[in-house]
Design a protein that fits this description.
The structure is a single chain. The protein has two domains: about 280 residues, no CATH class; about 120 residues, Roll (CBS-domain). It has 14 helices and eleven strands. Helix 2 packs across helix 3 and helix 6 runs antiparallel to helix 7. The structure holds zinc ion. The site of zinc ion (ZN) has 6 residues, from helix 3.
Length: about 400
């Protein structure tokens, strides 16, 4: 799976304050375990649940059935190795996406392996439908090639060396082959944000030339497939409970419901975000900005700034200006970082974050453009300039509130 950074699921860069499906899950700790293609690889806490579940189900079910007569520690060892190889398969799938994205000059912030597989976090959206298509296809293609390679290799080894040749290796090889084929095929389900859904979006985007509309339509397909997976999962569980099907169908059914729910909520969040983008594209900065901008002087003390501005106005931050020039910005966080005892002795100039050119925008930009600038620069507020003068201030939360009202 690939996700662009402003997508639900990325933490701090959430474009708007929107409830998103796996925010709770994503806030668990994750650890950096290495680098590949220059991209940091992270493992999320929830991934260990999958690791244990896969190892356990192989060690107690699949392996004793296919390879009878071994000791329990052997089964657990083989299960653990298979789970690690599965982990490697998912990583290679994500590296497939990442390799193509990097060729399109889209930086990948990191790859995270979590309960549903992996996500490559792209810094921005693909530049064209063609790029979207190729980036999305690269992951499943890697999985299908790996799967074909493992299955082909196992069949060749078996026919060449005979049945008895390293039975354990043959079982592991064919298992890994099947899992990779499944990984490739499952991700090709045409429901956004799965890879197949991205392929669908690329097609719709090329067709109707409207990125947000294409996202919205592909996400609708994602919602549909999420519901369908949930229903199939429910059917399997009912079948297993009523005795019509084997017990293993109940586990598979539960897993399908889990994945269906995930797809449903991720697709719903993408659809909402697309709707929000559509409405924010038609809103200008002038409509959303705060018109009466209160600015601070660089040489006033931090204590005065707190007493006369932060407390009096209740804003989260102020631009620092002198003779009509924006020198920087001071936020509540900058003040809090300074010990209270030093407030009377430090000047605003010393704790402000200096202005960068990216900090000022014209009033006729769309709210979307302003939002993108804030996300890229990691800024919460921008100064609106017209003819060399400050005419307003725009903040992330103001845009979010405006759009919520706008939709209502
Ligand atoms: Zn993928």
């Amino acid at each position: 799976m690939v996700m662009s950074i402003p997508d639900p699921g990325s933490e701090a860069e959430l474009t708007l304050e929107f409830p998103h499906c796996y925010g709770g899950c994503m806030s668990l700790p994750n650890w950096r375990i290495g680098r590949a293609l220059g991209i940091p690889i992270h493992v999320h806490a929830s991934w260990f649940v999958v690791f244990f579940f896969v190892t356990w189900s192989l060690a107690t079910g699949y392996l004793p059935e296919t390879l009878p007569g071994l000791s329990a520690p052997r089964y657990w060892g083989m299960g653990g190795i298979a789970a690690l190889l599965l982990f490697l398969s998912v990583l290679l799938h994500e590296l497939g996406h990442s390799y193509v994205a990097l060729r399109y000059q889209i930086p990948i912030r990191r790859i995270t392996l979590f309960i549903f597989g992996g996500v490559a976090h792209m810094e921005k959206e693909p530049p064209s439908p063609r790029a979207e298509f190729l980036i999305a296809m690269a992951g499943p293609l890697v999985s299908l090639l790996l799967g074909a390679g493992c299955l082909g290799g196992t069949i060749a080894a078996e026919s060449f060396f005979g049945q008895s040749w390293f039975q354990g290796l043959v079982v592991l090889g064919s298992l890994l082959g099947m899992v990779n084929v499944q990984l490739g095929l499952f991700n090709l389900i045409p429901g956004f944000p799965l890879d197949g859904g991205r392929v669908l979006r690329a097609g719709l985007w090329a067709w109707n030339k409207d990125f947000n509309r294409a996202t919205s339509q592909a996400a609708l397909a994602g919602i549909g497939f999420g519901v369908a997976l949930g229903l199939i999962g429910g059917g399997l569980m009912v079948g297993a409970w009523s005795g019509a099907m084997g017990n293993s169908f109940a586990t598979n059914g539960g897993w399908l419901i889990f994945i269906g729910t995930f797809l449903f909520s991720a697709a719903l969040a993408s659809r909402r975000r697309a709707a929000l983008h559509t409405s924010s594209a038609s809103v200008t900065v002038r409509q959303v900005m705060i018109h009466r901008v209160v600015t601070l002087l660089p040489d006033m003390s931090v204590q005065d700034a707190v007493d006369q501005y932060f407390i009096a106005h209740g804003f989260g931050g102020f631009p620092v200006c002198e003779e009509g020039q924006v020198l920087g910005v001071v936020t509540v966080q900058d003040v809090q970082a300074l010990p209270t005892a030093l407030w009377p002795w430090r000047r605003v100039r010393e704790i402000m974050r200096p202005a960068v050119p990216a900090f000022c925008i014209p009033p006729d930009w769309s709210a979307t453009q302003a939002m993108e600038r804030m996300v890229q620069g990691g800024l919460d507020r921008l100064v609106v300039m017209e003819n060399g003068a400050i005419v307003g201030l725009i903040t992330r939360s103001a845009i979010a509130h405006f759009l919520q009202l706008h939709r209502a």
